[in-house]
Amino acid sequence: MRFRFVLSSLDEDPEGRPLTQGNDVGTGLRRLRYEHTGDGIHATKWLKSGRSKSWELSNFTARIVRDLILDDGEYQGRQVGLEAKVNGKTINFDLSVGEFTRMSWVLPMLGPEAIIYPGQQQHARAAIQALSGPIKQARIFSHLGWRKCGVQWIYLHAGGALSADGPVSDVEVSLLPALQSYRFQTIEDPTTQAQALRASLHFLSLAPDRISLPLLACTYRAVLGSVDFSIFLVGATGVFKTAIAALCQQHFGSTMDASHLPSSFASTPSALEAPAFYAKNSLLVVDDFAPTKRNGDAELQNVAERLFRAVGNRQGRSRSNSGSNTPKPPRALVLATGEEVPQGQSIRARLLIVDVLAGDIDRARLSECQRSGDEGYFADSMTAFIRWVASRYDEIQGRLRTRVLEIRSKADPIPAHARLPGALAELQVGWEIFLDFAVETGAIDATEKENLERRGRTALRSLGTLQTKYQANGDPASHFIALLQAALECGQAHVADRLGKAPTDAWSWGWRRRSHQRKWMPLGTRIGWLVGPDLFLDSAASYQVAQKVAETERFSVSQQALRHQLRERGYLVSIDRGRGMVQVRRNLGGTARQVLHLKARTVVAESELNPTKD
Question: Do 111 and 166 have their domain in common?
């Protein structure tokens, strides 16, 4: 390749081009001029002698057409939008400031026809900047969720932004590929909005309240701000846990069905960190925590631990070896699914774990809800909710903080981690705010709201009780009691009265009324009998139920050792001292039995007893 340097007088160009074209850099005899020629970029420099030197920088032209401010809600970065021409072809693309400065983008973006001549990279960079002329500046939001623009709050999504009045013009949003389906379409017809909201509430019918109500509450709570806990949906393969998680996800975009969820545990920790950060004020389903020896339990456990610890601590990881060393704390409400719960009490303390058992999901109603999700009803309901929140955002934030503190201060003590009452309070307040919206839009009336509030309190209390199964403190006796509580909540066990019939407060003791019947029906195995304030446990039956509920939780103490642990921990009200046995004799259900004698409130707290529950 041959290059030519030409000396000429101050006022002439060696090729005869007028020197009034292009831009000058510097002044006087240090003046340097850059020009676009027909096929590239040309430089001219004036020497001390008064003569000039000219040379070619590249065989293509380029100019900056946009100055892009990238706003992720925590930090601001910058990109430049370029328009380049090489061999008659025009190419438009965006570069980070660092990429543009290094000038290593020419071959990847323009192809092998584009050449910067040897030693001319920095001149080419300066020339592109000097020759760009007026540059349009634009702010691009790279996250979902709330931002304040002027005096109004707007909610960013893949299609732009929503305010209380509807779509907002002139707001540009550029998201990760994984978040491109977070998209809302505005509906104005009140009847259609109410229909969409009723379709969303129909989600409650596809599973017991202990499953469906916390899931729907967390879906709407996600919009109201960041939390320091995650929801973990656990169950064996084939129980439809991914399907119901996808219905929650479809509230943020109708195309995110079970086959198109935004993230999974197959990703690396860093790959999960990005969507959890950018999906601000949104729900993020992370699917399929299924450790096996073949794919490496330790590696998958590390992925889960990194994610849930970051959510719980509201902290991201700084990485000095990456393109950015700024931490990216999760700002989404994470709803994860898995066949097992990640190990470690510290991690489990940051989770609200929802058990899904075989038969819990009504398949016919699941299909109905999937049709509603696919047709966009769930996303329409969330759109209406977002616009309603936008009209009173500051008021709702104040109410949220005040009400959470109020509920926590009145919460019954639960033998689990200290984080639990706060997490349950966040869901309860989110549910209450959603119900206010539902009443105001005419989707439900005051009576329905009262019923749904009561169901919410009961379901979240049950959810809190079930956490003790996973957050046991290592004491076998306390773990056993927690497992029995979980069995009663999940319908795997019941307690009868002295005659074997439904006791007072039957709901709390594992009995349910069928929708078409008034008669109480027992669920699961009978593990004991109630006589006044006393509970008499069938030692063998209750032990077997606890083992079944524990599953992978390693409840491995023997039945005989457990009985003595119950005595040592003070759970047993009386023992048979005459025979030197911890079991006592009682006539229950018309039969003489040997049973363990406990106080009823040991298993079901007095505050949970509700004799009017249907």
Answer: no
Mean pLDDT of 361-374: 97
User: Could you report the per-residue pLDDT of 292-320, keeping only the tens digit for each?
Assistant: 755 557 888 889 999 999 998 877 665 54
Beta strands in 269-308 (DSSP E): 283-289
* pLDDT at position 63: 95
Confidence at residue 398, expressed as pLDDT on a 0 to 100 scale: 96
3-state DSSP assignment of residue 287: strand
254 and 393 fall within a common domain:
yes
**pLDDT band at residue 575 using 50, 70 and 90 as cut-offs:** very high
How large a percentage of the chain has pLDDT more than 90?
Answer: 66
- The answer as to whether 482 is a domain residue is no
> How much is the pLDDT for 315?
73
Label each residue of 25-51 as H, E or C.
ECCHHHCEEEEECCCCEEEEEECCCCC
The secondary structure of 335-399 as a DSSP string is EEEESSPPS-HHHHTTEEEEE--TT-S-HHHHHHHHHHHHTTHHHHHHHHHHHHHHTTHHHHHHH
Positive or negative, the CA dihedral 321, 323, 325, 330 is negative
More confident residue, 29 or 474: 474
d(CA 342, CA 347): 7
Number of domains in the chain: 4
473 lies in some domain: no
**Residue 14: its pLDDT value, please?**
40
Q: What would the two tokens of residue 178 be?
A: 């994984």
The answer on 113 and 46 residing in a single domain is: yes
**DSSP run (H or E) holding 175:** none
Classify residue 183: in a domain, yes or no.
no
User: In this structure, are 523 and 560 located in the same domain?
Assistant: yes
Dihedrals phi, psi of 263, to nearest 5 degrees: -160, 165
Reported confidence tier of residue 131, pLDDT bands at 50, 70, 90: very high
Q: Which long-range contacts (CB under 8 A, 24 or more apart) does 72-80 make?
A: 72/141, 72/142, 72/143, 72/277, 72/278, 73/141, 73/143, 73/145, 73/147, 73/280, 73/331, 74/326, 74/328, 75/326, 79/140
Q: What is the dihedral of CA 593, 596, 602, 606, to 10 degrees?
A: 20
Q: Is 304 in the same domain as 411? A: yes
Q: How far is the CA of 17 from the CAs of 8, 36, 234, 336, 457, in angstroms?
A: 12, 11, 74, 66, 82
Range of the domain at 26: 1-141
Residue where the block lists tokens 């074209």:
21
- Distance between CA 161 and CA 259 in Å, rounded? 26
DSSP-derived 3-state class of residue 602: helix
364 and 217 share a domain?
yes
Same domain membership, residue 200 and residue 235: yes
Mean per-residue pLDDT over the chain, rounded: 88
- Same domain as 386, residue 313: yes
Q: Is residue 597 part of a domain?
A: yes
